[in-house]
Amino acid sequence: MDFKIKSQSLLVIFLLCCFFGAAVFATKENANEGSQMQTQLVAPEDKAVQGEPGDVLQSETNSVLKNLLTARPDLQFTVLGMSPIPGVYEVQVKNGPVLFVHEAGQFLLQGDLLQVRADGIVSLKEEKEINKRREIFAKRSAEDMIIFKPEGETQAIMNVFTDVDCGYCRKFHREVPQLNAMGVEVRYLAFPRAGIPSGSYDKIAKAWCAEDQQDVLTKVKNGQKVDAKVCEDNPIAEHYAFGNSIGVTGTPAIILMDGTLIPGYQPAASFAKLLGVSP
Fold first, then answer.
1. Which of the residues 18, 165, 169, 187 is marked catalytic?
2. Residue pair 58/81 in contact by the 8 Å Cβ criterion
3. Please, are residues 191 and 239 in contact by the beta-carbon 8 Å criterion?
4. Of 8, 135, 174, 180, which sees the most CB atoms within 10 A?
């Protein structure tokens, strides 16, 4: 981040907000104590192996869950473990957000947890997502992607979720030759923003089903008609679900091999600077 603040002051303010400014789940009078809730207790390793402290930890997490389920028996909660803030647990709501809940189970916060470091203020949530994406793309095969490779040695790789009806995706695609000339390999995955099925899906699926995928993808991005047909075994639905699972919400969405997600268009020269390659 571009600004600096005193770490001790920010930490004090955050802790005060955590314990005294948090929202409380509204308690329902007729709580359904028999509702079937799936919970998982995950203790930090340093406490779980110590016997008695681990028992105390389980007692605390049970108390947290009891209070949450009493207040909202219609939801399912999973205790992920202790957050970086002592006495505050990370609790996952099924199909919902991560909550930061005080060990007494009476106060909670919803949102991003920031950490003050010597080099700035860091989003711990985004840091986890970056690590997750880095591990995924390090192992994921590129066989189902449409790839535009440089003629010489590859200096960097960009994984790009794209939509053929997206204006900025088309603008980005026109600059792919510039990126290739700088040694940047562009790997496309499909992300039809209109969903599946849709006209956008039909167009982009034709590119993945074509014999010359690069040529057809370029043509459909330029609004040209193509003879290719939609095949049943195309990977578009898998790409779309995959993108949603790792934080893609629009196009173009560029994910670097270090896990960084860059939403939106940038000129090729900006990417060159970011990737450390010569324009």
1. 169
2. no
3. yes
4. 180
Catalytic residue, candidates 18, 133, 166, 187: 166
Cα separations (Å) of 5 from 96, 118, 127?
32, 10, 20
Catalytic residue among 163, 165, 170, 187: 163
163 is catalytic: yes
Relative to beta strand 156-162, strand 184-190 is parallel
- Residues 128 and 229: their CA atoms lie apart, in Å, by 40
Determine the Cα–Cα distance for residues 239 and 263; give it in Å rounded to an integer: 17
CA separation for the pair 159, 89 (Å, rounded) = 34
How far apart CA 21 and CA 40 sit, in angstroms, is: 27
The strand pairing partners of 93, in sequence order, are 77
Helix axes 167-174, 213-221, angle to 10 degrees: 130
What pLDDT is recorded for position 265?
96
Residue with tokens 């930090």: 44
pTM of the model: 0.69
The pLDDT of residue 11 is 43
The predicted structure's pLDDT at residue 9:
45
Q: What is the pLDDT of residues 4-29, one digit of tens each?
A: 444 444 444 444 444 434 333 333 33
Confidence bin at 60 (pLDDT 50/70/90): low
Question: Per-residue pLDDT tens for 203-253?
Answer: 999 999 999 999 999 999 999 999 889 999 999 999 999 999 998 999 999
Segment (H or E) for 263: strand 261-263
d(CA 192, CA 169): 11
The answer to whether residues 270 and 178 touch, using CB atoms and an 8 Å cutoff, is no
